[in-house]
Design goal:
Rossmann fold; 7-stranded mixed sheet; 9-stranded mixed sheet; 496 residues; alpha/beta
């Protein structure tokens, strides 16, 4: 938006509560984003009054189409506690009314009570309207256990890692280490966090970017000891299922060896709290990615048995998150933008979904209330048919499924299944006292972890006398299949 357009923009703020008032004050103070014309609200005690010198009009449904507007008019939805249903209704109402731009402030899961900032407002996205209503968690209270601590996030440039970092800005941590092997992604989250801090979001946490490979055991042991972190949230993983099927050894090397290196370094350095982010694809896994995450789970839970008293090593498992990089939401967006078709693997394909902010707030909560040696499962609600998700997204962009945008079925890709499961027959679900956080108890002994790790070692690195299996995909799959019987081994694939 050009400077002249910004100056002339007339902004309507939907919601005259704490978030709306904070946004209005910031717009007035900066004087570069346009001017707030009115608040729109459904609260009868506010309608007809003025707040911050700005009139409050309503009810929203009755007045939105009667407004005397201009082409550059913008709406900012500032109702952090709004349900998905309410947001959908508001969005379609504002879109029908012809607003040029519709933005939204974060949900309650992303902002501290009484604290909303214009920099957090962003273009409304399909994922804001999809899925269930997220649980409301008091972030400040749930993160007290990290106050004054040094916290490290692996995979900090990824979808989960970056959102963990944003929420941790409000935890009062002494240092926040952003660990990753991709300089661009770490640069981006580092810059985002600093911009948020400049605009008053969170507390004066020291942000430290760290570039490094988890596969390098010597470096990992060195850097974890040097950083003296109190808590680690391990979100780094190779996770694109079909790609990992084609790169089997690399998947195991990164997800298994990388996790083992990090866990051993954490044990050696005296890290007090370690939380592994896991996936529903680790349940009776059929893919290399799923098998690698199942092994990673066992590595962390085994470490918990070796950790001294008062040190908590745990696993948090959940399903898909809406809008993560490489997930179906961005893919569908691109397919819709080019006019379709929207591709779905199978008519009955279904997945469990939650938003990234909700998943991260529950992970951070679990990290504080969880106990070492436990595997926790976030309550994902009911599974969602991928076709239903696609149809909702097509309608979000103003098209009709089947008529304007075609849906095409392309068949399951390597490593995929029609439906995912959240726990296996060998695991039993035990509710906790905390909303949407469950614990899983295993009823049968797991696979022989040390034996498996010893067998995969010569496939990952050159070992004298075993050169023939170095980076050999067939050898890796055979080892995984021996310990993880549910794994599907494809036929007629190359050795390397």
């Amino acid at each position: 938006m050009a400077a002249q357009e910004r100056d002339s923009a007339r902004i309507y703020i939907i919601g005259a509560g704490f978030a709306g008032r904070a946004i209005a004050r910031e717009i007035a103070a900066k004087r570069v984003f346009g001017s707030v014309v009115a608040f729109l609200d459904d609260d009868g005690t506010k309608i007809g009054s003025k707040i911050e010198g700005i009139p409050v009009l309503g009810p929203i449904r009755d007045v939105v189409n009667l407004l005397s507007r201009q082409p550059a008019d913008e709406a900012i939805i500032a109702i952090p506690s709004a349900s998905r249903e309410a947001l959908r209704e508001l969005y379609y109402l504002l879109k029908k009314a012809g607003f040029a731009r519709i933005r939204i402030v974060p949900t309650i899961a992303q902002i501290i009570e009484g604290d909303a900032h214009l920099i957090q407002a962003r273009e409304i996205d399909p994922q804001d309207l999809l899925g269930r209503n997220p649980v409301t968690i008091g972030i400040r209270e749930s993160l007290l256990y990290l106050r004054g601590k040094r916290v490290l996030i692996t995979g900090a440039g990824g979808s989960i890692g970056s959102e963990l970092a944003r929420q941790l800005l409000s935890a009062g941590v002494a240092r926040l280490y952003l660990y990753g092997h991709g300089e661009n992604s770490i640069y981006n989250i580092d810059r985002d966090l600093r911009l948020l801090q400049e605009e008053g979001v969170g507390e004066k946490t020291a942000i430290v970017p760290v570039i490094g490979e988890l596969k390098d055991a010597d470096y990992v042991r060195f850097i974890i000891a040097r950083l003296k972190c109190d808590a680690i949230f391990h979100a780094a993983a190779y996770k694109h299922v079909p790609m990992m099927e084609a790169n089997t050894v690399a998947a195991v090397e990164n997800n298994v060896l990388g996790t083992r290196n990090l866990v051993e370094a954490a044990l050696s350095a005296g890290v007090r709290r370690f939380v592994l982010i896991s996936t529903d694809k680790a349940v009776e896994p059929v893919s290399t990615y799923g098998a690698s995450k199942l092994i990673a789970e066992r590595i962390v839970l085994d470490a918990a048995l070796r950790a001294s008293s008062g040190r908590e090593f745990m696993v948090v498992r959940f399903g898909n998150v809406l809008g993560s990089r490489g997930s179906i939401v961005p893919l569908f967006q691109k397919q819709i933008a080019k006019g379709g078709p929207v591709t779905i693997t199978h008519p009955d394909a279904a997945r469990y979904f939650m938003t990234i902010p909700e998943a991260c707030s529950l992970v951070l909560k679990t990290g504080g209330v969880g106990r070492g040696g436990n595997l926790y499962l976030l309550d994902m609600g009911e599974s969602v048919k991928i076709r239903d998700l696609a149809e909702q997204m097509i309608r979000f962009y103003g098209f009709e499924p089947g008529r304007d945008i075609r849906i095409e079925y392309i068949g399951l890709r390597p490593g995929e299944r029609i439906e995912e499961r959240l726990w296996s027959p060998e695991e039993s679900l035990v509710p906790t006292e905390y909303p949407r956080i469950n614990r899983l108890e295993r009823t049968t002994p797991p696979f022989a972890l040390e034996e498996l790790l010893a067998e995969i070692d010569p496939v990952i690195r050159r070992v004298h006398g075993k050169e023939s299996i170095y980076r050999n995909r067939h050898s890796m799959r055979a080892i995984l299949k021996k310990h993880v019987p549910t794994l599907i081994v494809p036929e007629h694939e190359p050795e390397f």
